[in-house]
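Issue 218. Parser rejects a valid record. Input:
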Amino acid sequence: MLRRLATVAKTTSNPQFNVFDRAAKLIHKSKLAKLDPLLSRKKDYLRDEVAIKTIERLAFITRPFDKTLDFGSHSGNFVKNLCTESRLPKELANDEIEQKIIKQLNEDKKLVRDKIKELVLFDSSQELMDRDKGQKYDFDFPGRISQFVGDEEQFDHTILQESNHYDVVLSNLSLHWINDLPQALANINRVLKPDGLFMGTLFGGDTLYELRTSLQLAELERKGGISPRVSPLVHLNDVGSLLNKAGFTMLTIDAEDIIVEGFPSILALCEDLQVMGEQNAVLSRANHLPRDVLVAANEIYKSLHGQIQSDGSILLPATFNVIFMIGWKKSDAQPQPLERGTGQISLKEALQE
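Output the parser choked on:
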């Protein structure tokens, strides 16, 4: 039984600072997961890729993950990839380097899988969490799995009430839709045990720059102005200060571009984003995209970023800038810097040597 604490941080965002329409975003996430689970599962490639990269990073952490919270878990991409054996495609089956990479990845999966005694999945979409129920994976998860539905931004579910409760909190590609990100990070810090680990990912500011610039140029040409067609995103330089203000220490932050190629048109890219539930949810978004703007944007996209194929066709790439962040909750057991003035060697002399 969870114990309710007398003092719980206030989690309700001030409406005047809201940027995203959370109700619309819930519909975006849930619609295709319920109506067409096969298509929804097929377009989960970004979340699956980031889940694998998270597993690789977790494998370097030499401590138990007894009680782990997957915050904004979507359909459970983390645990699905944790329990699925990675295999090489046929064209790379004889590549020794690729064989070693896949072998190491599968070892990492087993290592992380065996360290988690209890995994708690938490997401706002019941339909998305139910999408893959009954799916069989290569390995059974050895620990206990529980699922809960609630609003990530409100942070008011009973499983999030107790402070100092989780050893690890993970969050993959979910935080970029939260209005009050500083408060969400502070709440995550609160539920972690002292010296607990937070490992999160979100889309960074350079995500879909090809789509963004093409739409802006097309709308400026056809309409004489610009509407917010793509959601605002956090930039890499801002993440460190956000984590520090939330109470995290010993930060590790990096970014990686995942480039998805082969889109025949801008419409195909937008359809993928819709199936993923990653379409625009800004409160001030325009209701529709005029056809003439879409046609113009498609041609601009091709001319600026298109990749010409051997048959003369042009395919479009899409860049997803993923920010990876690691932070630790402060603890007296962590290494502490020495007091100022206690050094025995002059830095100037050391550099001169």
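Fixed in the parser; the record now loads. Residues 1-16 have pLDDT under 50 and may be disordered.
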